[in-house]
Design brief:
Blueprint (H helix, E strand, L loop, with lengths): L1 H23 L1 E2 L5 E2 L17 E3 L7 E2 L4 E9 L11 E3 L2 H9 L8 H9 L7 E11 L5 E7 L2 E10 L10 E10 L12 E8 L10 E2 L5 H9 L14 E10 L4 E6 L3 E7 L14 E10 L8 E2 L3
Parallel strand pairs: 15-17
Antiparallel strand pairs: 1-2, 3-9, 4-8, 5-10, 6-7, 7-10, 8-9, 11-16, 12-13, 13-16, 14-15
Length: 307
């Protein structure tokens, strides 16, 4: 009898372990971990058995501008080379689509679809800020904006007060909040600092741009000289930063911001005009944008991209 009892207990333990593992990691037909309803919080409010509490600010953080949560979704985490890193400023439907699509992985669209079901447009007079707010077993219930120096970040607003059971596969939670467009100016969420933004010769061509100037600016100076471009004075670079220069083509733009993914480093132009204001340029305007970026913010697999 004792041996029988031990055998029954062992079988029960194996079954329980298998059930727990299956709950933590369902696999899609493509073999990619897919979101399980027990782990997903998109538009469903807090987990009933886990009350939520406001998360404290870190020492270097300050409260950010007022914001409203417009979308949140969780799924089992997985590597995605298209996913944009950090807080991303979203100003129109095109940038919203780009942000949401970056979380589609292979044939698994569960996370991106949950986000798209909740937000389909940028509200008038608002700007959206989106990004990953949590990567772990906890599933947050919200997100807010905070400040760190001159940058605006997206952070967790609510975490379960009760201990979260250990999970086999971490949950990745992505949130999007809306804020007044004047409260989140262009470049305020970019991982880098734009220290030079100038209009240059409209006949300029890309040449060797974009360029990294971290180790030397010789190639940069030579390129500008060949293209008859003005050479802005470059400040001393911090040893912990990397420096990048881009030639960007637009029309009556006011700023540029850097975007980083696991595989790409690229820049886009932006402006402070109302979305419905019509403008025209006889020819594209050419802008030289130079950024300093903390080296730690750039994945080792990311490469410079013209767009």
């Amino acid at each position: 009898m004792p041996n029988t009892a031990r055998s029954i207990s062992l079988v029960a333990l194996v079954v329980a372990t298998a059930v727990f593992a299956a709950a933590c990691q369902r696999v899609s037909p493509a073999g990619i971990p897919a979101a399980d309803p027990a782990f997903s919080q998109a538009s469903k409010g807090p987990v009933e058995h886990s009350p939520l509490e406001t998360s404290p600010l870190e020492t270097s953080q300050l409260p950010g501008p007022p914001s409203e949560l417009v979308a949140i979704a969780s799924s089992h985490s997985r590597s995605n080379p298209k996913a944009l890193i950090g807080a991303v400023r979203i100003v129109d439907i095109e940038s919203l689509d780009t942000f949401i699509d970056s979380y589609a992985n292979g044939e698994d669209y569960s996370l991106s679809q949950e986000l798209r079901d909740q937000i389909t447009a940028v509200p008038v007079g608002k700007v959206l800020v989106g990004g990953v707010i949590s990567l772990g077993c906890d599933i947050p219930g919200g997100a807010v904006l905070s400040r760190r120096g001159d940058k605006i970040e997206l952070r967790v607003d609510a975490l379960p007060t009760a201990p979260t059971p250990e999970c086999v596969v971490a949950n990745m939670t992505v949130a999007i909040v809306a804020a007044d467009i004047l409260d989140v100016p262009g470049g305020s969420t970019s991982p880098g600092t734009l220290f030079s933004f100038e209009t240059v010769n409209p006949n300029a061509t890309d040449g060797p741009f974009p360029l990294e100037l971290t180790t030397s600016d010789t190639e940069y100076l030579a390129a500008l000289g060949q293209m008859n471009l003005n050479v802005p004075e470059l400040p001393v670079r911090l040893p912990t930063d990397r420096r990048f220069a881009f030639l960007l083509y637009g029309c009556q733009d006011d700023w540029a911001e850097l975007t980083v993914s696991p595989t790409r480093i690229f820049a886009n132009l932006g402006n402070n005009r109302p979305a419905n204001e019509q403008i025209s340029c006889a020819a594209a305007e050419v802008y030289l944008a130079i950024f300093d970026v903390p080296a730690a913010a750039i994945p080792p697999t990311a490469e410079l991209s013209a767009n």
